[in-house]
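Continuing from the previous page of notes. For each protein in this section, the sequence appears first, followed by its structure tokens. Read the first protein now.
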Amino acid sequence: MMTITIRLSAIILALVLLSPVASAADTPLSLTTGMREPWTTEHRDGFTDLLIEALAKRTGVAMTLSVNPAAARAISLTNDGIDDGLAARIGGLEKDYPNLVQVPEPIFVNDFVACTNAATPLIRTWADLAPFSVAHIIGWQIFERNLPSVRELTTSRDSRQLVQLLQNARADIILHERWQALWQARQLNHSLTVQEPPLAQVPMYLYLHKRHAALVPILSAELVAMKADGSHKSLQDKAFSHILPDR
């Protein structure tokens, strides 16, 4: 009888060790993101850095986060199973990448905004941009797809160059993601106005390779819990409060 019990215990232990959750806890999931400061930083205190760290602690699922700015390449690496997951990506990638499983609860919502040097001109809709000189980063499809015909259009290669166009009065309005615009303006010691409301708001998600699909409901439920208990908001405050414009 004791021999049977020992054998059953050994089988149960083996099954536990081979389960996706247990293996993920033992071997950190390698996640990549394409978003830099202030979402990820070299000091690991960007919002996405902090969120992944908190999720790992709360779920017991070890995770690492690195930056891969080559979006198509990063997605393909996860779809091929070389990396374990993606952080801060738009919804629906699984339609084109069948090995990806989206975590249903968004990790945050990206605000795509118009920024000006002063409170005016007032920009409330895409149509309001038409009379002005406008700039955005080349390749950002949310702007390329929605921007009306404007008086003058300039494209920049990165966030720094984009904010410098506004700083040097070479554009009336720049279009960017809220927190990257504010962070870069802070680095350049330039005060800008973020027009409200955002021109567009896009939920951003985590994805895992399908071999880790068992972890998806765990991570989704924990994201819901973090938003309910205020810890998600606390991480936002920690990551973003120091780059808000001085009042």
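Done with the first. The second protein uses the same format. Note its length before scrolling.
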Amino acid sequence: MQATVKWVDGAMFLAESGSGHTVLMDGPPDHGGRNLAVRPMEMILMGLGGCASFDIVSILKKSRQKVTDCRVELSAERAEGTPSPFTKIHLHFVVTGQALKPSQVERAVNLSATKYCSASIMLEAAGVALSHDFEVVEFEP
């Protein structure tokens, strides 16, 4: 996996993934940015959410669960001062589907957290306290 990040101006950077996709990052005004794009630490948090959600949907589909939507709400705490790495992150999954079994959703969340989500495992190894919970919502057409 590869990526390139190029400085644009101020605190704005353009990142390009090895697969050819680009994303703009910017900083807050008090750090030379114009607040026109996502911040780099927000990208890490969103990447964690994407990685875990991908796992959960995949696991549930393989378990023949009828998933219609999956959303994760992430909340994070960071250390004071500089640097200010994440210290705690909570992931709350809202999984919607038809007759979903809560035990299957719980299993998928646990497997993602402990076995499959590389971002989650990497952050925990770095000392970030991760916690997870979920709710199941019945799909209403």
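What the second structure shows: The chain has a mean pLDDT of 97. The radius of gyration is 17 Å. We return to this in next week's lecture.
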